[in-house]
Amino acid sequence: MAIVQSARPRAEDPRFQRSLKALVDAVSELLDREPLQDLSITRIVEAAGVTRPTFYQHFADLPDAARRAGLARLADAFPIPQPAAALAGMATAEMRGQIERHTLPVLTHLRAHRDFYVRVLEGGGNVAFFEEIVAFVAQRMLPEAFEIAARKGLAARDDLMAVLAGGIMWLVIRWLRGEIDGDPEAMTRRISGVATTMIKSGS
Description:
The protein is mainly alpha-helical. The protein has two domains: about 15-60, Arc Repressor Mutant, subunit A, CATH 1.10.10.60; about 80-200, no CATH class. The protein contains ten helices and no strands. It has helices at about 15-35, 40-50, 50-60, 60-75, 90-110, 115-125, 125-140, 145-150, 155-175, 185-200. Helix 1 packs across helix 2 (about 40-50) and helix 1 (about 15-35) crosses helix 4.
């Protein structure tokens, strides 16, 4: 006798979206207060007001839920920006200023929620998550930089993203963990200097 399985809810289903938001909010609120290893799926679903099977409709496990919560908080805080003034042809000081205007709000947000992001990284970080964070850096903190460098023939855009955004994100992670000193303004100047040097190297 064949077992009839209920269809998985579709992502565009409003109920699916509501339960996802409830779970992400619950994970975020709990991670604001304590590390991932102290949490349980039972506590999360109770806080979200959903069932355990609903949790598994959205996430593979607790680390997956933590990663999704981290990315959701970043995305909520920083939508993809509108096209900025072209960096190509700018003087070095002007270019640095442009990059700093995009970077400082991100670093200020990360510092304000430092414990949360460190807990996500330490409890849920993996290669796929790091790649998603690199893509975030490229879209929010360094608009146009990769396109400009690629047009100059320095390297393929994806390679540039992997090297520059990946390196910058590693600096930011070390900074959040307290391995690098400095306030958001100091770290912003450091990042803008790296990015400007890369872009100008092809001029």
